[in-house]
Amino acid sequence: xxxxxxxxxxxxxxxxxxxxxxxxxxxxxxxxxxxxxxxxxxxxxxxxxxxxxxxxxxxxxxxxxxxxxxxxxxxxxxxxxxxxxxxxxxxxxxxxxxxxxxxxxxxxxxxxxxxxxxxxxxxxxxxxxxxxxxxxxxxxxxxxxxxxxxxxxxxxxxxxxxxxxxxxxxxxxxxxxxxxxxxxxxxxxxxxxxxxxxxxxxxxxxxxxxxxxxxxxxxxxxxxxxxxxxxxxxxxxxxxxxxxxxxxxxxxxxxxxxxxxxxxxxxxxxxxxxxxxxxxxxxxxxxxxxxxxxxxxxxxxxxxxxxxxxxxxxxxxxxxxxxxxxxxxxxxxxxxxxxxxxxxxxxxxxxxxxxxxxxxxxxxxxxxxxxxxxxxxxxxxxxxxxxxxxxxxxxxxxxxxxxxxxxxxxxxxxxxxxxxxxxxxxxxxxxxxxxxxxxxxxxxxxxxxxxxxxxxxxxxxxxxxxxxxxxxxxxxxx
Length: 478
Hints:
Distance between the termini: 79 Å
Helix content: 25-40%
Radius of gyration: 34 Å
Number of strands: 25
Strand content: 25-35%
Strand order of the largest sheet: 2-7-3-4-5-6
Structural class: alpha+beta
């Protein structure tokens, strides 16, 4: 690595160019900028119009630009490779450009290095000496979940990683940096105020344990819903907590701001007393408790086999090839205790961790299992033939129909796959064409039944288009 002592190094920039119609950087060229107010920053030049005038802006990052009207002079950073100079340990002053008497120059010193565990302040714009000997600049953003960070220097978060930078020194302060400094000061003030928060005696007359307030609300809820439990109440999210805010305890909902590594507290403002908050908790969790009646949820008992058999028998009526040996290849269901309440849970066939399947009734749970078994049955039935109707451009609420394919399955049944998308995304769905459709006496009647499953207004092809396709009619056996 370079031998120069960066702590004692000064870079002297000479030969600044005046901002004028006849002397501007090349398109995209990255430059050190002297602003009309005397500050120094940097950016890549992007002219406006035909690019032959001084009109345009210097880009420092996404939505972070400096208009050319704010700039007095510029000096290209792209032209330098300091590698050889930085290998001479005797050098402490480097002139960039010819130094002429009376010519404008500016010096930068006070360089620091990540090697010494020195970091810029967040959003600070800095002049950089890169490890390859080139010069650059950028706005510092530390990485939130690992060591290091990057200097943002252009749009789309283009950046110089900290491990590519040999030494850095701050340029002038700007509005982005000042706003971050003010926000950081506010975070420090908030943290200091919240070290010993006060508690309003009317609002927290039952103490500062949120569980006490939930339990008192639970007592009231049980007057209407005898089955109510605390886990049921806490299904209504986000849950309420007691947290310090501006030096006082408040009832609040907390969202983690991972960008600034702080908590954002949204305080309760619908009342001023503890009992009013308890009444509010009853209203807030009412819906979750009302729809968690175990007599409805587990109306067929607590043996999961009963529910799975009901789902299997219903699916088996149409998906005749489905057998129970296949079920090991999909979700595995159970009923188990979670936080003191019985819940339907599921895991994939080779996983250990269960997740809660939150449903309000036995019938709803069985419907979800049916859908799972139907999808499994289609995956397990090999396709033996296909037919793709021809169609022109079809737009579906901003999405374009891309594929519409009928498949004959090994069992002799049929399914259809529909794919639609826009310029950036897309999706596909498969539909089983039930035996009920094929019980129709005529092809027209078949289409009427089929379009109840795959309606033309939702998926692109309607009765008029399908009726004209003689090859499709033959493919479907009519």
